């Protein structure tokens, strides 16, 4: 293997830059030519692919976002789009790919490998942490810390006015961010897509809050089965029917996707990036380089996207216990 290319795809996540840097520098260190593909599968289809050098990735390890940019590509979901992508890679003589992204990116990478056979190793880049085969995904720790900082601020004003706050965090299909924010932010309740939300028990608990509680924080993952934070707040308000209780909603949104990556995300991104290149060199393909129990582990793409990554039941129990 002489030439490899790296790209970022799907929702960006803090630490993707550290991962790109590790791929480029490990590749060069091992004697490979490394190319960067702009805007994920979009750039692959358009042939927006450039040679990268060690200096190409200077001064990015501390930055959020991705210097290669990211995109969600509808065209790559079509056989015609993937054919164009393959022709562009073939023309440059690319013999290996590093795909940094989430479950969608790996689904695309798996299909592409099965059709065209270019060896591909992935790195788990998503704030959602919803990928089997790695304890944490690159960007999750930063997103949780960003959300927590906001929750702490909301708690100040919630306490000052004795209000009940519903705070919506990201997570279309996964509640990992919500659960960690719930534990770290001292929430009364956490609502996640993985479990059925029992509105009546939430209402009952809110009606019976101990008298010394001045405020309540309820963390809602955007993909909860009952709806978003605004919808759930309205349902609860309707059932409580107590004009003395004041309800507010804050949706944290895309601030969770940006900002300087935490130390954990820089280290995880760097380790996975190196793991992906070394994996390709040693003949691995159609799999992801993740970190489990502090070691690099390669998991087939089929498992990364096919196996559910469950929330830890102890974490959900912890929220109930610590909010008495
Ligand atoms: N079934 C599929 N076939 C081909 N490409 C896919 C498929 N699913 C997703 N992709 C590609 O991966 C991209 C990123 O997926 P997305 O779900 O948006 O983000 P993430 O990788 O962060 O989960 C999509 O925009 C699409 O180009
Ligand atoms: O920025 P967009 O395109 O609106 O996407 C929002 C979604 O992206 C995420 O931030 C990350 O999801 P992916 O990693 O699957 O792209 C989700 O938590 C959120 O639902
Ligand atoms: Mg995803």
TrEMBL record:
Residues 3-279 form the Phosphofructokinase domain. ATP binds at residues 11, 72-73, 102-105. Homotetramer. GO terms for biological process: canonical glycolysis; fructose 1,6-bisphosphate metabolic process; fructose 6-phosphate metabolic process. Belongs to the phosphofructokinase type A (PFKA) family. ATP-dependent PFK group I subfamily. Prokaryotic clade 'B1' sub-subfamily. Signal peptide: none annotated. Pathway: Carbohydrate degradation; glycolysis; D-glyceraldehyde 3-phosphate and glycerone phosphate from D-glucose: step 3/4. It comes from Algoriphagus alkaliphilus. Catalyzes the phosphorylation of D-fructose 6-phosphate to fructose 1,6-bisphosphate by ATP, the first committing step of glycolysis. Its EC number is 2.7.1.11. This is ATP-dependent 6-phosphofructokinase.
């Amino acid at each position: 293997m002489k030439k490899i290319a790296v790209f970022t795809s799907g929702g960006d996540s803090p630490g993707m830059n550290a991962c790109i840097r590790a791929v480029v520098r490990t590749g060069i260190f091992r004697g490979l030519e490394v190319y960067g593909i702009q805007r994920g599968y979009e750039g692959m289809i358009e042939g927006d692919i450039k040679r990268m050098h060690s200096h190409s990735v200077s001064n990015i390890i501390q930055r959020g976002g991705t210097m290669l940019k990211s995109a969600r590509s509808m065209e790559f979901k079509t056989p015609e789009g993937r054919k164009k992508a393959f022709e562009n890679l073939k023309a440059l003589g690319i013999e290996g790919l590093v795909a940094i992204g989430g479950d969608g990116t790996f689904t695309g990478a798996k299909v592409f490998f099965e059709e065209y056979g270019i060896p591909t190793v992935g790195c788990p880049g998503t704030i959602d942490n919803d990928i089997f085969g790695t304890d944490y995904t690159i960007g999750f720790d930063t997103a949780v810390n960003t959300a927590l900082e906001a929750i702490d601020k909301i708690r100040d004003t919630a306490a000052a006015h004795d209000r009940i706050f519903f705070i919506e965090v990201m997570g279309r299909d996964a509640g990992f961010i919500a659960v960690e924010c719930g534990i770290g932010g001292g929430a009364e309740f956490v609502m996640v897509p993985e479990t059925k939300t029992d509105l009546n028990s939430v209402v009952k608990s809110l009606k019976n809050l101990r008298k010394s509680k001045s405020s309540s924080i309820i963390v809602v993952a955007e993909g909860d089965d009952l709806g978003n934070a605004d919808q759930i707040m309205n349902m609860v308000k309707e059932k409580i029917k107590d004009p003395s209780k004041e309800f507010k909603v804050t949706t944290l949104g895309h601030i969770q996707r940006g900002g300087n990556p935490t130390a954990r995300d820089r280290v995880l991104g760097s380790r996975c990036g190196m793991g992906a290149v070394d994996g390709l060199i040693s003949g691995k393909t159609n799999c992801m380089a993740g970190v489990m129990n502090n070691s690099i582990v390669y998991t087939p793409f089929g498992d990364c996207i096919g196996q559910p990554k469950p929330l830890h039941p102890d974490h959900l129990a912890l929220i109930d216990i610590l909010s008495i």
